[in-house]
Prior knowledge:
Blueprint: H1 5-25, H2 32-54, H3 62-84
Helix pairs in contact: 1-2, 1-3, 2-3
Amino acid sequence: MYISNEGLLVILFVGLVAGWLAGKVVRGTGFGIIGDIVVGIAGAFVASFLFPKLGIRIGTGLVSEIVYSAIGAVILLLVVRLVRGGGRF
Length: 89
């Protein structure tokens, strides 16, 4: 799969916003703002590849990308918290 430079920048920006949002939704993870942003960027990559393949579509535009990425980041934060925290949500 090819990602253009502009697409990569959008994914990084959306990941920053999504990481911040996911950090607010999933409190108590202990990663801090930088860790949540990194997880948000990873969530943006996961969401940009996984959700279209699953047929999940919210809409188009930057807002829908932020929603996709925030969902992906929340899922990643919960998985990391589950693995790191010994199985507690």
